[in-house]
Amino acid sequence: MSKKVVMSAMLGVTLVASLAACGGQTNQPTNNSGSASSAPAASGQKTKLAYWTIDRHDADYMKEVIKKFNETNKDNIEVEMTVMADNFNQSVDIAFASKQAPDIFRTNDFPGFVKKGYLLPLNDMMTEDMKKRYNNLLVEDSNMVDGKIYSLPNTGQYWRLIYNVDLFKKAGITEPPKTIQEMVEDAKKITEAGKDIGAYGFAENFKNPSSAFSRIANPIGSFSGTSVLDGYNYKTGQYDFAAYKPIVEALRQMKQDGSMLPGVESLDIDPLRAQFAAGKIGMYFNHSGEPAVYQSQFPTQINWSAALPPTIDGKQQGTVAVANTGNYIGINKDTPNKDKAWKFLEYIYNLDFQKAYHEKGLGISIVPDVNATANKPAMPGIEGFLPTKFDALYATTPTGVAETKVEGTKLGNVIIKYMLEGGDLDKLLSDLNTRYNAALDKARAAGETKMKADPNFDPGKLQGSLAK
């Protein structure tokens, strides 16, 4: 056996051992079902359930929640939480392969976890009232597959234009832009007015081209009523990058105007935040996680706010697609303690917990009755991110699988190159359509996506689905 193979085997054993230790399962008997949980407890004995999460930001609060559950539940259940913020998906894979998987875990890679057979369908456990409560939030490939519900939603990332109020005032701008043309003009005004302090009108984390462009194009495009998200047109079931032409042209114009922060093409998200906190950036796009960032990671003295994104023509004909919304936690399909694991999910997927989580600013709810009854979250800066009638839940696009099969340069890199160098935009967008639709055909033929055309899709009809 080669040294390389031996080292690989040793590494695998080490990872498995460390996972077992992290999960608090080293003294638990491993059963053949693929779960590291204890066997069903005899009457009066505690049943220990392992819960793995990727969330670090709410860990202290969740410890309190789980402590209360452990002390008050009538079923002798004791949940042990482990935070695994790094390499979470890989850790789950290794745990299932070694039959040391947790009983309950964050469905961080929902499509992958379902495809690998990790998750238990919840349909038969849910009451009719619970099904009614979540009815409008059940979306194929987001929390269910072929009608089987594997997880339920809790919170989501609400996308906004984030702007420096002080710089806007300095430039004589009274309100955030309503159109992308106004955004271009405002960025130029801010840059001119901010010369004395080295401030610029616009920035995004273009070091990661795909992430940067999606942060801009998705909220603008979906709010404009294009029916396009991640380049995918829900109505036609095909990629339609031409819908993004005005957005791409606006980025090119801001770059040509000198309105973007210098070196923006190599800017990562945290350096961007640092520059924004220092008062050097007028506008950028991101989601509702930012208020917490400017409270702890990058404390700032600037006056900033968030607004609904501009649209292509000023008409708000669509809705802003809320990200990372459809699923939260699920149950290991092989745990011998399915009913007791469900008791914990019931405790989490209820109005009281979700209201408290929302009100503490740990995440903004997408559940309508929470948004209708909860108090405003206790987090400075959160006001502009709160749900509106213009926010909505969209089905997951097939772009994740399509991009694994795309030949040639991917979307983000094509767009950023055009932004920096120019070129024939129509030709570039047409070429993207050809290559991405060919990749989509391959993904469909391989059974990797079931997404198909929905001629009746109307993003405007989604208005009011999460909040009034």
TrEMBL record:
InterPro entries reported in the protein's UniProt record: Bact_solute-bd_prot1, SBP
Residues covered by region (Disordered): 449-468
Record bears the keyword Signal: yes
Keyword Signal: yes
Keyword tags: Signal
Signal peptide: 1-20
Record PANTHER family: ABC TRANSPORTER SOLUTE BINDING PROTEIN-SUGAR TRANSPORT, ARABINOSE-BINDING PROTEIN-RELATED
The protein, known as: Extracellular solute-binding protein
Organism in which the protein naturally occurs: Paenibacillus anseongense
Lineage: Bacteria, Bacillati, Bacillota, Bacilli, Bacillales
